[in-house]
Amino acid sequence: MAQRTGTRHVNRSSKYGKGARAKQQRKNFRKERWENDMKELETLKKRYEDIDSASISKFTDFPLSKKTRDGLLEAGYDVPTEIQRETIGVSLKGHDVLGAAKTGSGKTLAFLLPVIECLYQNRWTAIDGLGALIISPTRELAYQTFEVLCKIGKHHDFSAGLIIGGKDLQEEADKIHRTNIIICTPGRLLQHMDETSYFDCCNLLML
């Protein structure tokens, strides 16, 4: 009986010891990842001013974060289209862009990549709230944009939401204040602005 009690005590201490070590390992991992991210951010920023659209032949030629590059690779994006070559670099430098191109030319990816990179550069997290608001004229286009965003941004920690008519308004309202990127239709956006009291755009970086 005493031996069994002693064994239990040893096991309990061992368990707590493992828990403490695991907690410290997670802490060290987060710190190392943060330091690596900061180094990458500094390197990327220095390359922004050297972007030359004429020299871009692949997406890897752009100064993009590893998380974004991995998302592009897994989604099968390799060679940028003309509008992507001409606009992504300008957007990464922080300039506003007005672009026009035919359907299927890659406009969606052309503006989504800078959105993701801008939030990454600003170390955006869930507590920062809404950072990018993308308004689409139709539900179909909004859904298409959301799908592309999920593919190329899958390795980032941002949260994204699709806010369109035909879905439960309260369910959207419960999550909207924790969403970093919102893709929406105009009517649904106005409805939330009128009816969702905690819908906050004060920290918005991109529209």
Automatic annotation (TrEMBL):
It catalyses: ATP + H2O = ADP + phosphate + H(+). Residues 1-12, 18-30 have a biased composition (Basic residues). Keywords: ATP-binding, Helicase, Hydrolase, Nucleotide-binding, RNA-binding. Residues 57-85 form the DEAD-box RNA helicase Q domain. The keyword tRNA processing does not apply. Its EC number is 3.6.4.13. A motif (Q motif) lies at residues 57-85. Residues 88-207 form the Helicase ATP-binding domain. Gene3D superfamilies: P-loop containing nucleotide triphosphate hydrolases. SUPFAM superfamilies: P-loop containing nucleoside triphosphate hydrolases (SSF52540). PROSITE patterns: HELICASE_ATP_BIND_1 (PS51192), Q_MOTIF (PS51195). The Q motif is unique to and characteristic of the DEAD box family of RNA helicases and controls ATP binding and hydrolysis. RNA helicase. PANTHER family: RNA HELICASE. This is ATP-dependent RNA helicase. It comes from Saccoglossus kowalevskii. The lineage of its organism: Eukaryota, Metazoa, Hemichordata, Enteropneusta, Harrimaniidae. The gene is LOC102807128.
